[in-house]
Amino acid sequence: MSENVAAPGSIPIQTALSLLIAGALFGLGLTISGMTNPAKVIGFLDFFGNWDPSLLLVMAAGLGVSIPGFQFTTKSERPLFETRFYLPTRTDIDAKLLLGAMLFGMGWGLAGFCPGPAITSLISLDGNVFLFVLAMFAGMTIHHTAFE
Amino acid sequence: MENFTPVSAVLGGLLIGVAASLTLWTTGRIAGISGIVAGALFPKRADVAWRLLFLGGMLTGGLVYLLFNQGSMDIQIQSSPLTTIVAGLLVGFGTRLGSGCTSGHGICGIARFSKRSFLATSVFILSGVLTVFVTSHV
User: Fold this and answer.
1) How far is A35 from A5, CA to CA, in rounded Å?
2) Residue A80 has pLDDT above 50, yes or no
3) What is the pLDDT of residues B74-83, one digit of tens each?
4) Does residue B115 fall inside a structural domain?
5) B67 — contact with chain A (CB < 8 Å)?
6) Rounded Cα gap, residues A112 and A41, in angstroms
7) Structural domain boundaries of chain A?
């Protein structure tokens, strides 16, 4: 029997709770840090203007936890609630990686939103956030249609 | 630098690091938001549930913030609606072409010591800085 990709897939309760808690901590971190405010993000990217280094600290503090967290975790054979890790395997540097990062950076600089903060900000019910997220979905759809 | 908010930046960053580490430790997944969203929009296998749970959690995190902040969240969008749409298209397309965004490359990928993520993060920050330079100072 072929797998139905539209099916949500079954999830053990402890995994579901972990995902909800981790997602909530992630969303809370994004809002507390100010990354959900596009003006603040653009203030960070404005190296040649009135530079706001706050987001450098967000990244440094995030990596300060994630580096030891990831290095420690990937030394174990499997995660706590799953049978295996789902990690990217590619190591090659190709034009798509660089071009994609460049285009993403342009969009990030234009509006001040990257995907995580934009998703979390939807809860504010701000119409402009919905506009950005819908356009982001459209951009992903274009990529999916063209390349996958 | 009068907008510098070091305490909330560090606190928020620590939470993001804990969230990404918790996701990997318990479920073995990478907390890369663009990949999580794209996989929910265009499922390749029956793994949409974990993505929706994580995204639902993110909205819940925003809601918790609202509850503790008198229902308000500082969101100052300075771009015009047209620019916002162009930006969204670029972010959506670019993160898929480049296999990740600030979270997947910047927080998770670098933490795995991935050369691809380190390079991608450098490129999108540089590109963002150049874009802001052009739109604000040229």
Assistant:
1) 33
2) yes
3) 999 999 999 9
4) yes
5) no
6) 5
7) 13-147
- Give a yes or no: residue B20 inside a domain: yes
Q: Quick check: A58 and B9 CB within 8 A?
A: yes
Token pair for B69: 């902040």
**Average pLDDT, stretch A5-17?**
78
User: Contacts of residue A127 in chain B, CB cutoff 8 Å?
Assistant: none
B2 vs B131: which has the higher pLDDT: B131
* d(C-alpha B25, C-alpha A67), whole Å: 13
Contact A101/B123 with Cβ under 8 angstroms?
A: yes
Per the structure, how many domains does chain B have?
Answer: 1
What is the average per-residue pLDDT within B81-103? Answer: 98
Distance CA A129, CA A114 (A): 11
pLDDT band, residue A5 (cuts 50/70/90): low
Q: Which domain holds residue B17?
A: 6-137
Who contacts A17 (Cβ-Cβ below 8 Å, separation ≥6)?
Answer: none
